[in-house]
Amino acid sequence: MSERQRIIESRRLVFFKRMMLIIMCLSLPFLIADLFASREIFPVLTAFFLILAVLYMLAGKVHAPGLFRAMCLLLAGIILFLLYISSHDPRSYLFTPIVPLVFYLMLGKREGMIWSFLFLASLVLLNMAAYPAGAGGQWMNENMLLLSSVTAVYLMVIAAANQIETTFQRVYESLQEANTTLEEKNAALMQAQEEINTLKSVVPMCSRCKKVHDEDGSYVEIDVYISRHTDSDISHGLCPECTKELYPELAEEILKKA
């Protein structure tokens, strides 16, 4: 697994755990209320609550992408079920806008978009089944207005979720680039520090030929030693004193050109 995938999966796992806790806390009051109000819904909500608890306990122990897909499928299923049994109540559509946000944050940009539009298609088909075209004015007025409003909000949430995921990817790429630059600078500083430490240390040198005792036990010229232990390149020339000593007739002309 690459570093990027590891960071993304870690972020999704944290969001997964928090989302599971929120959903369990929100579903518990409905579970208690339905215990007395609706004998039909209570077993379904009980199973939903127990599966959520199992998924939460499995977080970090099983393959994360599979766990994320299971949670998204469970969330979509329970919302569609509640819509099916109470499709005539507009309040049953309140939780639908959070679905694409969960899909994007759990599954990523591409897969989240696919799941979001599949859920929207299921929502439309479920709504059409609850209000058949033969219902006449009721279908044309109340249901079309409700469906249009829900779809508009749903599409806006998809656009927002898509922008959030895109922004995260851009931020990650910027941070990754900055981290790479920082690592390169740190490596250069470490190398420079090693070179400084090498040059600061006591260097054994022959008092006669001026050769330096290297780490491998051999004696090398000082320019060879410097080239081995630093990134510096040695260029050879003559100082003014040596120039006058070796070329007394041409020394003055050579020094003027230099």
Could you describe the 3D structure shown?
The protein has a two-stranded antiparallel ribbon with strand order 1-2. It is elongated. It is mainly α and 258 residues long. Strand 1 (212-213) and strand 2 form a beta hairpin. It contains nine helices and two strands. The longest helix has 64 residues, at 137-200. 75% of the residues lie in helices and 2% in strands. The chain has two domains: 3-178, no CATH class; 212-257, no CATH class. The model has no long low-confidence stretch (mean pLDDT 78). It starts with a helix and ends with a helix. Helix 1 (3-37) packs antiparallel against helix 4, helix 3 packs parallel to helix 5 and helix 4 runs parallel beside helix 6 (137-200).
Q: Any key phrases for this structure?
A:
258 residues; two-stranded antiparallel sheet; 9 helices; 2 strands
Beta-strand percentage range: under 5%
Any idea how many domains?
Answer: 2
Cα(first) to Cα(last) distance is 60 Å
Largest sheet properties:
2 strands, antiparallel
Low-pLDDT residue intervals, each spanning 5 or more residues: none
Order of strands across the main sheet? 1-2
Helix percentage: over 70%
Along the chain, the helix and strand elements come as HHHHHHEEHHH
Give the CA-based shape. elongated
